[in-house]
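Listing S7. Sequence submitted for prediction.
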Amino acid sequence: MREPILYLLIIGAGTGGELCVSRAMKAVGEVKDFRPTALLRVAGRALRVPWMWAGLTLMATGFFALLGALSIENVSLVVPVTALSYAAGALGGRFFLGEQVTRRRWAGVLLVCFGVALVIMGRR
């Protein structure tokens, strides 16, 4: 029962964190200057956006769930299962960030999900 909870945390928290960080960076604006001082200014602005802190917290949660999953399962199972984050990312991009997701991308997401199902079915 631990494994499904860890997988949900990896996929949900990790992807949720990426979505929050994306929202924060859209609020900060496009990075056009890549000199160290300019990057530090962008980082400072980003850290003032609450979505950034939510994203970092969620991503840390996903990371520690990944460590937990890797401590009890084979990497050959854990890594493919975490590919479901692609589906979660497409859904989050569409509904949380309002992005347009093309049919071709949805087809790719379905292929990933099919591949994950094959890995899970061949688990033991």
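Caption to Listing S7: primary sequence and predicted structure tokens for the chain studied. The chain is about 80% helix and 0% strand. The chain has a mean pLDDT of 95.
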